[in-house]
Amino acid sequence: MEKYIIKTEQIDAWLKRIIESVPRVLAPVSSGTKTEFRRIKSPEEVNNKSLTTTVSAKAAAFPPVETLFKYQKDGKDTTLTEDSFDKYPETVLWHARSCDAMGFSPLSAIFDWDYKDNIYDERRNKLTIVTFACNQSDECCFCTSVGGGPGNVEGSDIQLTMLNATDTLVEVMTEKGQKLVALLPDIFQPLSEEVDKEAVLAKIPVQFTKEEIKEHVSNAFDSPVWKRQSARCLGCGACAFVCPTCACFDIQEDAHGNHGRRLRCWDACGFSLFTQHTSGYNPRPTQATRWRQRILHKFSYMPERLGVYGCTGCGRCSRACPVDMNLQEHLISIANSNHE
Ligand code: SF4
Ligand code: SF4
């Protein structure tokens, strides 16, 4: 890892150079009460004060709707056309958070599990992630309880930490990160003495460990806890749509006579139709069984099958839930309970 100091006032000049040099730069942009990752054309568009965006950064590699291929029928013949990977632009994800960067590890584990998803991989490989360490948090954040932290560098190519009003620490983890530094090298001064990065980070208490949650939920398939916790869940799917690690999708046909497109669209295991068979039978017929699936998938099935947990503690699901389901509270309750 390379470490530098830059003057905080020079960050915008560097970002301007990045925007001039890279085909697509995504950054938090505010509109009304919402802040989302949007393509930016100038540093002034960035909301540097946002804690997290409403929706995670996963769309940079896994868009809400994307064309897998197009088809054209001609008599008995059908011609398939796939998009050229050249269409996916090199992208810098600017001012993401540690919990955003961490989210790409479980996403990649899912998309490259038994079948390598070239479309996802191509988009992910063209992504350079610049995170800003968090010096603030809110009541929904619990990254430290699931192995992350406000200054965790996992998944980041570069991380910036504001040390004081004038100086910013720059940690460069990868070759992709070095390429961004090389765009305006004169502003980066090698770090001459160690700095106490932890001292300026948000303080987020550890409430449980992900291993504790795994142990508890792995033995709680028939526990009444799922019914109790999901009693007010509407099954709206907002928690899955905003989540950096949720990867459920549906395949849809956009057909127009003899031609059309096959689409991959975000879906959610909280939807009642998600698992319904064409026969009408639904193996997860209640919201309690769907809530159980959400938690077990993230904290039991994923670590068992993929070696990664499906939650980065970003708190987006809790902020987005229309009925105030707070995941951190539910996980604390699970960690402290005996669900036999
Ligand atoms: S489950 Fe909730 S807290 Fe965990 S990563 Fe997804 S949105 Fe963030
Ligand atoms: S956002 Fe809340 S109400 Fe909607 S599905 Fe998720 S937990 Fe249920």
Task: Write up what this structure looks like.
By secondary structure, the protein is of the alpha+beta class. It has one domain. The protein is built from ten helices and twelve strands. The protein has helices spanning 11-21, 98-111, 118-125, 175-181, 210-218, 225-230, 238-242, 287-306, 316-320, 327-335; strands at residues 2-7, 24-31, 34-39, 65-74, 77-81, 91-96, 127-132, 158-162, 167-172, 189-190, 249-256, 259-266. The chain has an eight-stranded mixed sheet with strand order 3-2-6-7-8-9-1-10. The protein has a four-stranded antiparallel sheet with strand order 5-4-12-11, with no helix packed on it. A hairpin with a 4-residue loop joins strand 8 (158-162) and strand 9. Helix 5 (210-218) crosses helix 8 (287-306). It is globular, with a radius of gyration of 22 Å. The model has no long low-confidence stretch (mean pLDDT 95). It binds iron/sulfur cluster (SF4) (2 copies). The site of one iron/sulfur cluster has 12 residues, from helix 9.
| Uncertain segments | none
The amount of beta strand, in percent, is: 15-25%
Strand tally is 12
Which sequence of strands runs across the widest sheet? 3-2-6-7-8-9-1-10
For the record, the count of structural domains works out to 1
**Major sheet summary line:** 8 strands, mixed
